[in-house]
Amino acid sequence: MGSSGGAKRKPNHPSGGQAHEETMNVTEGKSGLWGALAGLFTFALIAVPLSASFAFATNPHTQQLFAGRLSDATQGGYQAFWWIVTLFLFALPFLVGYSVARLSGRALVIVGAVVALFVIAVLVLGQLFVF
């Protein structure tokens, strides 16, 4: 009479008091793969500028290609400038991949700071040795 008799429903069963939905996140656990893909894509985009900057850094006679402005620059300054550009271009795919894989505010700040420091260094070296 007063007894409920029978089995009680579980609270998180779909037919129970609450509706429980789970969504499938296809990107879960794959951020490293997306970072690697972004890095590979970036490397493909910068392959030609990377090889050109490496050629400028390793061959001192390429300074004559920039007749006028760079003829007054020292050979050491010219090579140092192009080695810095080469190293940054080589590091760029890794930075892009890392930032895509992490996608946190802190990671983006780190990448932004590195890029800002590089731009400042290139501007300073350019002003010292080129202009």
| Structural domain tally | 1
First and last CA, distance:
98 Å
The helix content, as a percent range, equals 55-70%
DSSP summary, beta strand count: 0
- What kind of sheet is the major sheet? none
Radius of gyration: 28 Å
Any low-confidence stretches, pLDDT <50, length ≥5?
A: none
Question: What is the global morphology?
Answer: elongated
Helix and strand succession?
Answer: HHH
Per DSSP, the total helix count is 3
Class by alpha and beta content: mainly alpha
Mean pLDDT: 75
Strand-residue proportion:
under 5%
Q: Overview of this structure, please?
A:
The protein is mainly alpha-helical and 131 residues long. The protein has one domain (32-129). The protein has helices spanning 31-58, 75-102, 105-129. The protein is elongated. The N and C termini lie far apart (98 Å).
Structure described in brief:
The protein contains three helices and no strands. It is mainly α and 131 residues long.
Main features:
elongated; 131 residues; mainly alpha; 3 helices
